[in-house]
Design goal:
- The complex is a heterodimer of chains A (402) and B (64).
- Helices cover 47% and strands 11% of the residues of chain A.
- By secondary structure, chain A is mainly α.
- Chain A has one domain (11-401): Cytochrome P450 (Cytochrome p450), CATH 1.10.630.
- In chain A, the strands form 6 sheets. A 3-stranded antiparallel sheet of chain A has the order 3-7-10. A 3-stranded antiparallel sheet of chain A has the order 4-14-11. Chain A has a two-stranded antiparallel ribbon with strand order 1-2.
- With 64 residues, chain B is an alpha+beta fold.
- Chain B has helices spanning 15-19, 42-52, and strands at 2-5, 24-26, 32-34, 60-63.
- In chain B, strands 1-4 form a two-stranded antiparallel ribbon.
- The longest helix of chain B has 11 residues, at 42-52.
- The chains are: A mainly alpha (402), B alpha+beta (64).
- The A-B interface holds A 59, 107, 110-111, 113-116, 278-279, 282, 339-344, 346, 348-350, 352, 354, 356-357 and B 11-15, 17-19, 26-30, 50, 53-58.
- Bound molecules: protoporphyrin IX containing FE and iron/sulfur cluster.
- Residues 62, 70, 73, 94-95, 106, 153, 157, 240-241, 244-245, 248-249, 252, 289-291, 293, 318, 345-347, 351, 353-355, 358-359 of chain A line the site of protoporphyrin IX containing FE.
Amino acid sequence: MTDTRKPVESLLTDYDIFEPGFVANPYPGYSEIRESECPIAHTDRYEGSWLPTRYEDVVALAQEYEVFTSRGILVMPPPPGQAEGAYGGVAAPPITSDPPDHHWHRRLILPIFAPQAVAKYEQSTRDLCNALIDEFIDKGTADAAADYAQHIPVRVISNMLGVPLDMEETFTGWVRGVLENMHDLELRKRSRLAIIEYFLAQVEDRKTNPRENDLISELMNTEVEGKKVPIEYVLGVCNLMLVAGIDTTWSAIGSVMWHMAQHPEHRKQLRENDDLWPTAIEELLRVYAPVTMARIVDRDIEFQGCPMKAGDRVLMAFPAANRDPRQFENPDEVILDREHNRHVAFGSGIHRCAGSNLARLEVRVALQTWLKRIPEFELVDPSSVTWAGGQVHGPRSCMVKF
Amino acid sequence: MKVSVDMGSCHGHQMCAIAAPEVFGSDELGNATVLIAGDIPAELEGKARRAEANCPERAIIISE
Ligand code: HEM
Ligand code: SF4
């Protein structure tokens, strides 16, 4: 495909988060903006946005939820008419909610994701990682992104929701339709509707055939102030589980695999020292934070000297914040036992990733299981690795040999 | 040395419990709990400081 976009004139005034070079490797660009006299860049592309790159600014934005609202959290505007169309009221609570509703939207799902609650998914996650490895271990080569990472979170989530595993490819297609092909408005709309319609049918089915112990049934039976929660909430949370829990985690696992393929010394350190794992996972999440979120400015305001207008979109580039040398020594280096690591891969403030404990577990188990079975491996060809970026950054194809 | 958590700022990153599982735990919602009432044993002080240095919300308060 030839790229017809107009060349970027200056990152500070014309950045393009979907430019293929930036998608593959956004870090030099973030650094150039961060170290310029204007660390908050602006672009007119995609209806305009601001891009803060310093840790301090990104965190300040995330904390100021009254000014920087979650009315729009994607890095591009929604397809026109989406809010008025079918199921226009179905969002993705709590990620799309603002206070005061955010409080109960989040409160209801937090217990599902507490560390002690997600621990029960460890063994099934390990089993599914092993099953994936069984498929390719004898071939001596595999796509660590497409044959491995991509399959893990979608199976974990399907299992939690209580929907059949054979939906895996369909879910993956829908999620990519919403998050990775942002220019194709029809595809975005269609994918979103497909998700909602699918879960509507799941809800209907549970009305006639009640089930136990699956998240959809639990959500349907949840009450707030003596009343069952509205169907929009149930559908919204199911939608959220797909769009927030799949692409994100698979991107993180993929980046970690890509890193490990190139760093035998880190594989060795992890093999030899079990105590290293907790800090190592946090460090890998810091360096390869996959997610950039957005906020919509509520009222005209000057933020760090930038004149922001009501309705403006601001990108919260957590991946840029996590590599700010003002906050992290040698920020581009992976230091598996880094002592001070207030990273914000999972955001900051009231919207802190509710799924973070599950995500960590998946990343750790995916890497542990792989290293146990395939201790030595390397990239087949570094230049053939392909990447997704913009909202969620991670490899989509990453051939390794062993 | 004593530790406490400002529950108004804690948003449940759990990085405290990752750095110092003997000192910090999780409540039903995933927010932090302090497991040691009173003085932190000397051998855990380093870990407790490390927890403080890893909390993205700066919610951990250490008092000597
Ligand atoms: C490595 C994987 C993941 C990363 C990097 C990640 C990152 C994030 C970030 C940065 C936010 C903050 C959004 C904002 O400030 O607007 C967020 C929110 C959220 N994430 Fe994740 N996420 C991951 C995996 C997951 C998983 C596996 C789930 C659940 C199955 C999940 C569920 C959520 C939810 C429910 C929220 C919204 C919380 C709220 O608004 O109160 N995430 N995530
Ligand atoms: S790291 Fe900080 S915000 Fe997270 S649970 Fe611990 S005290 Fe709370």
